[in-house]
Structures are given as structure tokens and as C-alpha cells.
Amino acid sequence: MALPLHGLPPAQILDELRGLRAADQPTKGGRLFAYVYDPGLDGLDELALAAHGIAASVNGLDPTAFPSLLALENALVGAAARLLGGGPGSAAPGVVGSVTSGGTESLILAVKAARDARPEVAEPRIVVPVTGHAAFAKAAHYLGVHLDAVPVSPVSLRPDPADIAAAITPDTVLVACSAPSYAHGVVDPVAEIAAVAAAAGVRCHVDACFGGWTLPYLRRLGVDLPDFDFAVRGVTSISVDLHKYAYAPKGTSVLLHRDPSLRAPQYFAFGDWPGYTMINAGVSSTRSGGPIAAAYATLRRIGDDGYLRLASTTRDAVRGLAAAVEAVDGLRLMAPALTTVVCFTSSPGGPDLFVLADELTARGFHTQPQLRYGDLPASIHLTVTAAVAPHVAEFGTALAAAVAAARAAGPAQLPPEVLALVTALDPAALTSEVVAGLAAGLGLGGDGTGRPLPERVAAVNTLLDAAPVPVRERLLVEFLGLLQRPTFD
Ligand SMILES: *Cc1c(COP(=O)(O)O)cnc(C)c1O
């Protein structure tokens, strides 16, 4: 794109944008099982968009200049706190929090607060089960904190609290667990983990980014899920994403702390320059009020009974999808589907999962393949939202047909020299040129349609699955770098 000499007419610009969107996966309609959260409620998008517009130009940099945003943030934090066992009359009456841009920022801030609460620790460490979200690793990387990963049982997909206890050292500033994990939708033994953290005098963060807005409702519906919120002694902070199961537009999450003293080291203050004294609760300084107002409107519109209904619809959809998986010979669930995830793998003699994912895509269902990791096999992840419910029967039919087609096709075949390259390669030897050659061979990159990937990606996933973790990371970094190039015309 080049800047036009004279500005263009609005209609033409909007046409351009709509044209670009045509290449995207469908964000509505319950056929995309990752990235998007759709309650399928009429009029909600329009409301959120209007609310976004009202506050888009407000700057969250200074809540005293824009008290509207302060009021909205305090209301969102209050709603999240109430839902998660905090607030007046609860076990955590002093709970406070911040609205952030997303789960990653919430986790970065939880780690920052824990690190800066212990300035005497020269080399701070955090303890996180391997099923903890990758954003903990990102936080550790950004903040110069060491991450001690604790394995999980390949059967229950949960860490043993004794292993968490054993991983805690005098330098540990935070223990984390998930409610539930993104990959498998499994709730960690939060009470036991919080107890070992408390016994060691260490903070315990519950990452409920994914499930914080559904688990309380699922429990009200009678689903047997463990305590995970501020009712659990020893839980010092909780994160919950509003842009996931609160069904708010992208750009809001909440980080809660049990009391203000736990939150204090989250803040950053700087007065040592000639400009304004900067005081920020989060990573950004200038922040749009748009996502915050949109989240507020969404919560107000759906309401407590609305979220209960959506959780009920979602639970029914999850049960239907899980039953469809169990009805197919050659597939098995990775874990009982008790939350909002259905995650399955192939049993011995079953279909190739990456080919199966392509066959499901060909039938209009977009799933998320997960690569094998340690003892854990490759799997297919489905994030289930309320909008999926009307498509459960159709998914079952598509799954059976896709499995038959995947069995008939067999696994993707990679040239042996390519396999040898990625399995033997030292990541440093993967130069940009080598990756560009591999990418071209696999049909990745521009094919002129605006889609960076070919229709079928089983070969790509098979390649990544075969590669050791550092090679996977290196390949994908190089590939993203190839995609992210400016356009000139
Ligand atoms: C999505 C997610 C995150 C990261 O959140 P983003 O909003 O994508 O930054 C962290 N933890 C869990 C469990 C998640 O599901």
C-alpha cells in the first residue's frame, strides 16, 4: 500500500477492508474452534461496537483526566472479583485489580508484581506446570525471571503438588497454575498447589484467563470442578480474560490481587525526566478506552443469567462434541471434557491427526492441531463457545467422514532429506535462506490469494511435529519474518 496523493472516498476504503477480510477464517457461526469467542447473541456486536466508539478516543494514561474510564475499570474489576470469590462479605474482601489488554499482559504483570515484591532475590524464579500458558514463559523472558517447569501426568494432565513443592527454592517468587489449561481444558489441583506455595511463603497465581468466566457458572450448573478462586487460601492473584468467555471484543483482561499490598509492586512510577511523572498499572501508557467500554457494555447486556445460559449451552455443546469424538473408532479424548475444551488424540492404529485436521477444514470446521510434547501425543484442540451448539450434529457427521478420509489418505509424506534436515539441525544452522527454501517447498507464503498457508497443512504440521522444540521455534520465527514484510506499490 502506498499513501494516495489525495485521500480516498470512505466507501472505497471500507470495500478494501472487506475485501481483505474475505481471506480470513470465519469469526462467526461456530465453525472456528480457536481464536474467537462467539456467544451467538443477536445485536451484541452492534452494541459493543457502539460502546467502543463512545470511548475510543479516551486515553487511559491518566484516570484523573478521564474519570469515565476509571469508573468503567473499577466496575469491571468489581464484577470479576465478585465472580471469582472476592469482594465485601467474601473470603477476599480487600481484593483489587487492573484491567489489562489481554491475558498475556495480565500474566506479565502478575510475574512483575511477584518479582518486584522480592527485591532481595537476585535471580528470581517462577514455578509453572508445563501445561501453563506460554505467556508465562514470555513473561519470564521479558522480565529476566527463570522459569522452572513442572511436568504433568500424561494421564491426568495435572501436576503433582509434591513436584510443585519440590521445585520451590528460596529464590521462587511465584507459583502458578491453570483453571483450566488452554491446551486441554484441565483444572489444576489449585487448593493443593496454593497450600504448598503458602507453606513456602510464596505467591500463588491462578491463571483463569481462559476459564474464569465459565468455571463459576459451570459449577452452578452442577459440573464437578474443584475450587480455584479466592475461596482457596493461598491464592494471591487471579487473571481472567474478558475477551474470551465474557464474550467482550478483543483487548481486555482483568488481573486481580487478594489485597492492595500484593498489587503495589505491579505499578511502575517514573519521575526522573522533565515530562509528566509516569505512573502505570500496566504495560502500555496510552490506552484506548474503546475495549474497556465495549467490555462494560457486553457484561451489562449479557448479565448473570445470560452468562449462566451461555455456560449451559456451551456445556451441552462440549458434551455433544465429546460424544462425537468417542463414537469414532481410532480417536480418544485427552481428558474428560468438563470445561469448555474438547481435546482429542489418535489411538494406536487411528488416523493421522494432521491429515484429519485438514479433512475437517475441507468440511468447514477449523480446529487447532497441537504438536506432540514430551510424553504427550499430538492432539486436536477445540475451544467451544455457545455459538457451536447448533452445529454439534453436523460436526459429528463431518468428523466421521473426515476420519474415514484421513485413514484412506494415510499420513502426509515428507521427503526424507527434509525430515533429516529438521530433526538433525542445530537451530542456529537454520538460516533465513534455508527456511525460505523449505517454506517454498511446502507451499508456504504468498500464492497471490492473500492466504499465507495452502489449503492443506498436514505436511507443515508433520514437519514441525518431527522437529525438536528449538527447531520448531526457529522455523516459525523465520517463517513469520518472511510473512511480515512491508508492501510497496
Ligand atoms: C488465552 C490465554 C492466555 C493468554 O491470553 P491472551 O489474551 O491471548 O494474551 C493465558 N492463559 C490462558 C490459560 C489462556 O487461555
Description:
The protein has 489 residues and is an alpha/beta fold. The protein folds into 3 domains: 52-297, Type I PLP-dependent aspartate aminotransferase-like (Major domain) (Aspartate Aminotransferase, domain 2, 3-Layer(aba) Sandwich); 303-409, Alpha-Beta Complex (Aspartate Aminotransferase, domain 1), CATH 3.90.1150; 416-483, no CATH class. It has helices at residues 10-21, 44-55, 67-83, 103-116, 134-143, 161-167, 190-199, 215-220, 260-263, 290-326, 353-362, 392-409, 416-424, 432-441, 458-466, 469-483; strands at residues 96-100, 125-129, 146-150, 172-178, 203-207, 237-241, 253-257, 268-270, 278-280, 331-333, 341-346, 368-370, 379-383. Strands 1-7-6-5-4-2-3 form a 7-stranded mixed sheet, sandwiched between helices. Strand 10 and strand 11 (341-346) form a beta hairpin. The model has no long low-confidence stretch (mean pLDDT 95). Its cofactor is pyridoxal 5'-phosphate. Keywords: Aminotransferase, Lyase, Pyridoxal phosphate, Transferase.
Summarize the structure.
The protein is 41% helix and 12% strand. With 489 residues, it is an alpha/beta fold.
